[in-house]
Amino acid sequence: MSELRHDPIQRRWVIIATERGRRPSDFIVEPESTETQFCPFCEGNEDKTPPEIVAIRDNQSARNSRGWSIRVVPNKFPALTIEGDLNREGLGIYDQMNGIGAHEVVIEGPRHEIDLAEQPLDKFVKILSVYQGRLQDLMRDERLRYILIFKNHGSVAGASLSHPHTQIIATPITPRTVSLELDSAKEHYDRKERCLFCDIISQETKDGIRVVTNNDKFVCFTPFASRFPFEIFLAPIKHCHDFAEEPPDKLVHLASSLKDILLRLKRSLNNPPYNFVIHTSPNMRARGRRLTHWQTLPMDYHWHIEIIPRLTRMAGFEWGTGFYINPTPPEDAAKYLREIMDKASDRELTRQAAV
Predict the structure, then answer these.
(1) Burial annotation 316-326 (CB, 10 A radius, 16+ → b, else e)
(2) Residue 320: its H or E element
(3) Hey, what domains does the chain have and what are their CATH numbers?
């Protein structure tokens, strides 16, 4: 029988449609080609992007030239722009302000064909460090209330270029999804003087049925009220409200955990399109924030990453009700993802024994 499950973070109900139960093989699609005639993100095409904001490059190479390993540039077609004033005003019942913000692209490497999951661990750590650096820099701007780091992998997930990259958008308001998380976290803390996310992480690690990986620093699990098949929630086990404040030694564990889960998804679902988003604390330096929401924020909020394989589509029922219908119970998804790397290891051992 299908189940209705409630998400205490986003305060939404999800239908786990067990009678529609779908296995990983039911979702596998043909992988997208990464071939392209021209890519502005490839090494040698530095003049085809806006001038770089920051880059990790060889000591001998000049800015905006070859010799880089990670490069951050402004988006050529930004959703929001950094110049100007907010000029917030009312129009009768409505409100509007200028489209002030920032829109940047983190080009994860010079090679077109190496996606994030396949990056060496030390390179993965550097990419995460670049994320942190951009977050810290943008938070110095008091006009910006929230900075979202997100990745679209595959055209179905919204990637217009197949060259591996991540995007960063800073907004002058806190997005609704994050605001709901903040409200839920604060109310839970007001009642229990505990972090809602810590309580969920504690229960999930104790139960274990939805845990995919746990390296004692970070845990990955399929949420109890998963919206989508093989949805993943990744979070630090030790409480921390701000991704930018994680120390360098923790980034190694984060890189290991995130790389692991992306490889599991890639191998089990044939490199599916996916999105991941880093939900971190709003900018505590921003002007005009609501003070009552910020007094306990370092204690009640918990940064995390949500990874969403794009395997199903929203239709009329979802749009009309706000419900999600998930045909794969998260317990089944977690079990399969736990086993997939073990199977791959067994195959590799068998192959080596035959050589």
Answers:
(1) eeeeeeeebbb
(2) helix 316-321
(3) 3-354 (3.30.428.10)
Residue 126: name the closest of 269, 32, 24, 255 by CA: 255
Per residue, the 3-state secondary structure of 229-259, as one string, reads CCCEEEEECCCCCCHHHCCHHHHHHHHHHHH
d(CA 90, CA 324): 34
Per-residue confidence (pLDDT) for residue 169, from 0 to 100:
97
Q: Which amino acid is at 174?
A: T
Provide φ and ψ at 153, rounded to 5°: -110, 115
Q: What is the pLDDT of residue 291?
A: 63
Catalytic residue among 165, 188, 241, 304: 165
* Residue for token pair 């239709």: 315
Distance CA 303, CA 281 (A): 7
Question: Is 165 a known active-site residue?
Answer: yes
The token pair that represents 135 in the structure block: 């977050």
Say how many residues make up the chain: 355
Provide block-wise average pLDDT over 10 residues at a time, the chain (355 residues). 92 86 62 73 95 90 91 94 88 90 96 94 97 97 95 92 96 93 96 97 97 96 96 98 96 97 94 96 82 82 97 88 91 94 49 40
Beta bridge partners of 278: 149, 305
Does the global pTM surpass 0.70?
yes
Beta strands in 136-210 (DSSP E): 146-153, 165-171
pLDDT of amino acid 278: 98
Beta strands in the chain (DSSP E): 3-7, 12-16, 54-57, 68-74, 89-91, 94-96, 102-107, 146-153, 165-171, 211-214, 218-221, 232-236, 274-279, 304-309, 324-326
**Residue 284 CB partners (closer than 8 Å, separation 6+):** 139, 294, 297
Beta bridge partners of 27: none
pLDDT of 138 reads: 96
- Longest pairwise C-alpha distance within the chain: 76
